[in-house]
Structures are given as structure tokens and as C-alpha cells.
Amino acid sequence: MIEDFLSFLDVGQGQQSLRTLSRRILQKCRKITCAEAGTIFLVRRRGQTRALESMSVQNDRIRLPDRSFLVPYDTRSIAGYVAVTGEVVVIEDVYAVPLGRPYSFNRAVDMATGYRTRSILTFPLRNFQGRVIGVLQLINRLGEGGENLPFEPSHEQMIAPVNAVLGRALEQAEILDVVADANEKLRQRNKELREERARVVALQQETEEAFRTSVRLLARAAELHDKDTGQHIVRVNEYAHLLARKAGLSKVFCDEIRYTAQLHDVGKMSVDAAILHKQGRLTGNEITEMQRHTVYGWEILRASDRLSMAAEIALSHHEQWTGGGYPRGLAGEAIPVAARIVAIADVYDALRSNRPYKAAFSHARAVEIMTAGDDRIRPADHFDPRLLSIFARQHAEFDAIWTRFDDETAAAAAAAAQPIVPPLASTGP
Fold this sequence. Notes:
Elements lengths: L1 H9 L7 H16 L1 E12 L2 E11 L10 E3 L5 H8 L3 E3 L16 H6 L6 E7 L5 E11 L5 E2 L3 H7 L3 H33 L4 H24 L8 H15 L4 H10 L12 H4 L7 H8 L1 H9 L6 H9 L20 H16 L10 H10 L6 H4 L2 H20 L2 H10 L13
Antiparallel strand pairs: 1-2, 1-6, 2-3, 4-5, 5-6, 6-7
Helix pairs in contact: 2-6, 6-7, 8-9, 8-14, 8-17, 12-13, 13-14, 14-15, 14-17, 15-17
């Protein structure tokens, strides 16, 4: 089932808007369960409160208005209850919800349309951190003769293993929408700058912030395929900035690598999702495709003059000092210095992190491997010796960065920052 959904989601992924992907996901889930209707909601913040906004509403029996609606983020509705608690709710007849349940069914839409809602299966959609970001609700399972049937436990068992996959796909689509919107705003802003030269100074800071927001969101979107990456891109930025400073590179260079290093793996957005999610050993062809993420990243970034360093990093951060890397087999000074810096930052963080093929190493063990090597890494062959000597002297600061941006610390801080908000007034079913 998971492999089926991964294949389904991979078709056109990266080009689909959030609403297009929501529509396709809802259609797929309805087909699997023979549901006559359904809705996908995403959690939205409205000022100081939250609500559920409909992203796709489908009903084979009646025509519904093509517009979004909001449901309060509280336990009084079925969808709200699932969003708040993260529980799956299966009801045979929503007109006969058992007493004692905190939620009830709003019959207003049924009364206005003449439709009769009966059975419901509602489950949460989670992101890579496990946080509920939305709800998928399936309505009125139909038998082969069109008769109404209840949803069965087997349907919940079919859907449950893929709800996080669906949630992460929706979150990535949403981030890409934000990126596209930010880029459109940036293009519009640049047009205004050309037309109104007198406002250049006033708008410069705002434009730069929009650009860096786009870079950050693009980097985060590329990492969402892997739930274990967490704060990886933040730490790689900081390691690269530290190495660049200690190497005596210019402030302009150091500032630029601090926000472009995070784009080193952006090309993975173009790699087959089935390869990215494969648990076992990759085949030779799969390894070749995985290695092409360097070229894909360069192709994504090279069109922008502002991202020329990022394009160099994406293309060359897997090159090796003695020429044994990929994709071009560059050696020594022929490898761009920014890519040589990120190579050290990326490998150190990978050693410290959990991966499908290994457990996380301690700082001491990671330093030992980086400086003395193991069966996979030969430092003298892999890394610029001058940069490696700087790492050997400054490794304690690498550990401090790891501690400051540790995944568990970041998750705890994010949870603590979640406000306690009052429920919205009822605005829909």
C-alpha cells in the first residue's frame, strides 16, 4: 500500500499545486474505500486562532459550490475532533452518534442539499515531525449495487500506514506553493524596482528578506522526503559559515555560504521518490540516479545569478580531493572552495545523524572518522587538507552547533511555542 501511494504521489510531484494534489489524494482514497464523497482539510492559522480549511470537496451525488469553507479547530465537530486529538473516527451513521461523544454532526448541508450523510471515516494527516496538519474525511461507502455500507476496520488499516506519507506530500506541496508565491512577489517587486528607482533603497531589505525566505523554503521542501533530516540544513549552514570564517574568506563569501549551503541537496526533489524511500540496498542504476541529484540541483539553481554559489555547491559537494568523487571527478583546487567546505559540513552532520543504514555517532567518534577515516571515508582522499586541519582544530565548535540545533531540542522548542487558543465560532459542518 505504501509503495502504491509513493508511486501515485510521484507522478507529477513538484509541479502540482496544493489543491491539485489534495484533489488527487482524495480521489485515490475514495477509490480505495468506495466512498461516495469526501473532504480534505488543512489546519490554518487565522490571527491568534486556528481553523480547518477545506482544500478539496468531492461528492458524486450532488454538485457542491467550488469554494473553501472553514471548520472550527475544536472537538465539537468530527473533523475538528480528529485534528485536535489525532485519533481516527469511524461512524456507521452520523445521525446516530453515540451519547457521550464530544463531537456531533451538523446536518445543515444535508438539509440544504437533500443529501443524506451516513457512514464516515475520518483520519489525521501528519507531517514528518508527526504533527497533525490536516484531516481526510471519507463519506458514505457504497456497495456494488449502490447501497450504503459502513466503513470497515480493514479500511482504517489500509489508510493508517500511509497517512503520514500523504501528510508530508501535502506539506511539501504547500511549501512549494509558498515558494512559488514568494517568487512571484519577488518578480513583481523587481519590476517595481526597475520602474521606480527612487524606492530602491527602501525596498532593498524587503526584497532580500523575500529572497532568503524563498531559499529557506526551497531547501526545506527538498528535505521533506526524509523524516530523519530534521535540522540538518540549518546545521550545515552554520558549519559552513564557521569553516569559511576560520579559513579567512571574505565576509561577503561567509555571509553567502551561510544561506546557500542549505541548498546542497535540492536536486533530490527531482530524484525518483521510490529510490529516496527505498529501505534496502540500491541497485547500480539506482545509485547512478541518486548521484544525479548533484546535476539536478545545479540545473535548478544555475539560472539565478544570486544562486551561483549554491549551484556550485549542489553540483560539486560530492567531489573528492584526489578525484574519486562525482559527478565530474574533479580534484584539488578545481573543486569550488564552497563545495569543499560543504563536503566537510555535510559528512560531519551525516555521521552525527541517524540514517537508515546506520545509527548516529557521538561527536568524538565522528571526529575520529573525519580525521583518521574508517571503511567508508578516507580523509586524505576525500577532503581539502587545509580545511580538514581547520576542522580538526575547531571541531568543538561543530559539536556546539550540533547541540544548539539538535533535532530533539528544536522539536521541543516548537512544541513549547504552540499557543493555547480559544475555539472559533461554528462556521460550517
